[in-house]
Amino acid sequence: MRYSKYFIPTLKEEPKEAEAISHNLMLRSGLIRRFTSGVYSYLPLGWRVLNKIENIIRAEMNKAGALEVLLPALHPSEIWEKSGRNKTLKEVLFSFKSQRGKNFVLGPTHEEVITDLVANNVKSYKQLPLILYQIQTKFRDEPRPRSGVLRSIEFIMKDAYSFDKDKKALEKSYNKMYDAYCSIFRRCGLEYKIVQADPGAMGGDVSHEFMVFSNTGEDKVVICDNCGYAASLEVAECVKSEDRKPRTNPAGATGQAEDPEKKSEISNEADRKQKDLKEIDTPGKSSVKEVSGFLKVEPEDLVKTIIYNIDNNEKVAVLIRGDCNISEVKLKKALRCNELLLADDEQIQKVTKGPVGFSGPVGLKNIKIVADYSLSDIKNFVTGANKKDKHFINVNIDRDFKVDKYCDIREINSNDVCPKCKSKIKIKNAIEIGHIFKLGTKYSNSFKANFLDKDMKQKPVIMGCYGIGVSRIIAAAIETNHDENGIIWPVNIAPFSVIILPLTGTDNHVKKVSEEIYNLFIDKKIEVLIDDRDERAGVKFNDADLLGIPYRVIVGEKSLSENKVELQNRKTKDSKFLPIEKIVEEVFDMIENR
RNA sequence: CGGGGUGUAGCGCAGCUUGGCUUAGCGCGCAGCGUUCGGGACGCUGAGGCCGCCGGUUCAAAUCCGGCCACCCCGACCA
Known about the structure:
The chain is α+β, with helices and mostly antiparallel strands. Residues 242-267 have low confidence and may be disordered.
């Protein structure tokens, strides 16, 4: 391809709309342009990268035995009502009424569509296993699109669905996809980590996320360098009270944890003494920060009481230490409920008979009280008194109120230890580039996707689903492969493998030789871009750095006088001077043997 | 949805406080001519603007007031 005939609108200056590095570089190197918030156009160069990635995905999917299809993006609302996800995904569903009054949604994912297809066309165990996939545009009305293509409301996704006759077979399909995903991301040149994850609204009970570490990533991942444990923040298990700083009593303790053994002795002793429950004034102080500041105690001396609304409008009071956060994912699992919503102000007042902001467990009636494990052994803590501007101090479980159930419901934090090996954990930001789920029968049940098994019995197909954010791979690749001058593409997903920079000036010979080399690359089927623009060397070098094409052939008068041209590696910046007739071969070898 | 910020040429910005010295400017980019040519050259000439939109105040609005819209960032949310 000739630069002069191509469309690569590079930007010299930083686009102010882009904060994230990948977003910035994608705009500057002319890969994408924003159309409206969360919606992007792919320009020729970006489109090439997208195609490279899609082809890798296709190759690996096909190799794993998956079959490519193309499903509609426009769905009648009924199928979403059928699965019930018109409710669970309400927030992100683009839904609208057509001119003729028919209700539609734009597909955010395709479990419904594919299950409907399979329900109508797969009737026998002989047709299983079956894995179908597509690469297609998805629409999700995200509350806040950000960071360019990392979170957009229209984006390209590869989604695959497996259908099996039983759990054992699902296991097989799942592993096939798991392995295919590993190959795909490896071939895309990404360093990824597989973590345990929450299936969320997708359903099912097992899921793994494929993550690429990057500060720009919106997801948090817990990792243990010692044993390799990795989980998304929201599902990571907490070790019972390992991290808790030993405390004496709420008032006055400033507890710097020095010697853990000594401390725990003190705390054990202190814990035996329960002080008298006392109601005190906390005028206008309701948040943990305000109350702990006012009473001069630490946040961990407080217990927050949070009222949730679960299935069938049942209310639950959830207790958590003041310095911790509830993981709603873990809570949902612990309560075994489908719906979990924070109670609104009115409901809180009804349940606690007190104002919002001063809720506490003492005196609560007709409500289940669930507490995090971290509360199982603390004494003399502070809670709301269910009265305006009042808190209790020296509250103690069993004496002052009863806990119906203890469970692990708090979000892990950086003071915690690894649930597997008890080493220090790390919490890192990451970009989710893939997510795979064992769905089970959630959708086959709603869509009656049954088959006749060998034993003459009708059975629901067992499903799995597997997603890759194709556009996200680009962003993740750039986030992890760039320098101050621009992108450094992994060879397999680079828009071109090699760029030729003829430093022409007035020299026609340079031009002629460059053209010869260009044609040699084309003959060898190596994707080549020649910068045939009438620009000075500096401009060409800088644009080449920005575009990040892995190999660069520089044709200049100086080296040409020795019958040589320069071959430079974008990543290592290593340069070597080679005879013209060797150059194509050399690049070919590097691409093939990388 | 809450908080913060921005909107002036393709991109980056100044001008706005104190309305008129602006025929709306600067840098980059873009077009033409000439010189230059291994890390973002230089000279000359030139094209390009509903100053986000609507309304108000005023003799006069990019500038003051009101409303709206769009975009970005933080939070909430998130498959």
